[in-house]
Automatic annotation (TrEMBL):
GO BP terms: circadian rhythm; melatonin biosynthetic process; response to light stimulus
InterPro entries tied to this protein: Acyl_CoA_acyltransferase (IPR016181), GNAT_dom (IPR000182), SNAT-like (IPR051635)
Family: Belongs to the acetyltransferase family. AANAT subfamily.
Residue ranges annotated for the N-acetyltransferase domain, each copy included: 33-194
One GO CC term, this protein: cytoplasm
Pathway membership, UniProt: Aromatic compound metabolism; melatonin biosynthesis; melatonin from serotonin: step 1/2
Gene3D superfamilies per record: 3.40.630.30
Catalytic activity annotation: a 2-arylethylamine + acetyl-CoA = an N-acetyl-2-arylethylamine + CoA + H(+)
Organism: Cisticola juncidis
Protein name per its UniProtKB record: Serotonin N-acetyltransferase
Keyword tags: Acyltransferase, Biological rhythms, Cytoplasm, Melatonin biosynthesis, Phosphoprotein, Transferase
CDD domains referenced in this protein's UniProt entry, alphabetically: NAT_SF (cd04301)
Pfam families: Acetyltransf_1
Location relative to the cell: Cytoplasm
Amino acid sequence: MPALSALPFLKPVHLRPPRSSPGGQRRHTLPASEFRCLSPEDAASAFEIEREAFISVSGDCPLHLDEIHHFLNLCPELSLGWFEEGRLVAFIIGSLWDQDRLSQAALTLHKPQGSAVHIHVLAVHRTVRQQGKGSILMWRYLQHLRCLPCARRALLMCEHFLVPFYQKCGFEALGPCQVTVGDMAFVEMQHAVRGHAFMRRNSGC
């Protein structure tokens, strides 16, 4: 007996041919929302978002364009971008670090043998801010890190006014950071990364 005849309740599925544009060409559509690791080709778009987000507040960027290229060439798997219809709207870039706390060297180095992921920057495009995208992207990023065997914890440094935001994302404050940029001081924060990613969807996605 053919295998299909043993399952009479299964009806054949008739696929419709792909819809074409008036000119007869097949129409390609981009996903409405997509999360993926960044590539060096995304560096310019990321820098434009970061520059607008940070220069107006602090006068400088966590990463300059050449540094974004540097990390996306060395460790693209430690980045995550949120794309809407093919356009980058938010992103995170990280690298590995091999010490308990961040130091000045952590701003530019990637330590392949490290087990701490240093989150250099989280930035959201100005047109989609105040929509919860930063916290959703961070949640996605932490789930992504749980799939990487090298990652044991995530570290970041932020200004005092951002501490409540990262606490809501599950980070705990470790105290003043050793790193300074000009006259700016930072709080160092940590999030444990353990186990496997929970395959559940965030209700805000």
